[in-house]
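User: Last request for today: this protein with MU-OXO-diiron, please.
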Amino acid sequence: MISPIKITDRVYYLGVNDRRKHLFENMWPLPQGVAYNSYLIVDEKTALIDTIECTVAADYIERIAAHLKGRKLDYLVVNHMEPDHAGMLGALVAYYPELKIVGNNKTFKILEGFFGITDNLIEVTDGGTLDLGHHKLQFVLTPWVHWPETMVTYDTTEQILFSADAFGSFGTLDGGIFDDEINFDFYESEMRRYYSNIVGKYSGMVQKALTKLKGTPVRIICSTHGPIWRSESSKVINLYDKWSRHESDPGVVVAFASMYGHTEQMADYVARRLAEQGVRDIRVFDVSKTHVSFLINEIWKYKGLILGSCAYNSEMHPMMSQLCNELLHISIKNKELGIFGSSSWNGAGSKALQAFAEASKLPLVAPVAEAQGKLTPDKAAAYDALAVAMAGKIQGGN
Ligand code: FEO
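Assistant: Here's the final one, the structure of the complex with MU-OXO-diiron:
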């Protein structure tokens, strides 16, 4: 039993931790779990802002009822229909049949498809408001941060931004709920992984949303995942601005696919040459071992990306292919791309990686390095040249 967690006098945190789920969206690993945050405003009218994933807390509705102390729930504001937040919507409507659901026209199409609900809807448009008494809510449409219906809710009274997925993070809230109760070092990487895996594809729309909210005084940010920002909200806004502008740090990710070690040997060789050139942040990954989710996180962080693959039949290695497909899917941008490969009887690995380079429109750092069999000094010139050229791009600034 945890006592009510107040954000301000009338605003409560009603989130839950999910430590059981292995894969978010049945795809992204959750080694440190995830939190689904929901918020309750108890005013002259009562309003819940988003719900939680339906499998996590059997007592969620009891907790809402306990906070309401016999009052009814007047409104459910649906900032985002993805079921990690709308999961309890059907159960909530069954419990509070007079509940009015607040969303926009895109919300309601998804709502009907997921729950068959078409009644008791209050449709808001961009800038629309809802008066709860002391609290006046304003709605700002932020499409594609992360789905087309996504919006954020701004409490003009206390300058609280209920931001849906924006500013969210993987990782459970282990005791600390607020930014001043946690060590952010634990969350920064998981926050960037959430951004790059889930929202980063729509970075252009994130920039539009940030522009739209510019000038709005925000004292507290309540995301649907991760910590609540009440002490340093500008910190997370700056991070989101940086990530959505595809601004990166001066380091290099070297990701390789190797069956029997020759391509790995090349990856280590290139990494060593990068270090000799003065690059200090170098991360080498075996794509067959590290899940693509973590690779994307590191790739988002650093400016340089060097991909190396052995030939596999007449293609690149399938695990490298998976990484490339995912990078195309998230529309990776603003990276300097280097390529190397090893061949036994054909050079299909680096050839296929060159096709990826063209498709991604990332600038290719010459030369493409390719060697047959193991890397020996007589075959190393192109690998040396690739490392020197990449280091030059990295050290040349962002
Ligand atoms: Fe956390 Fe897009 O749902």
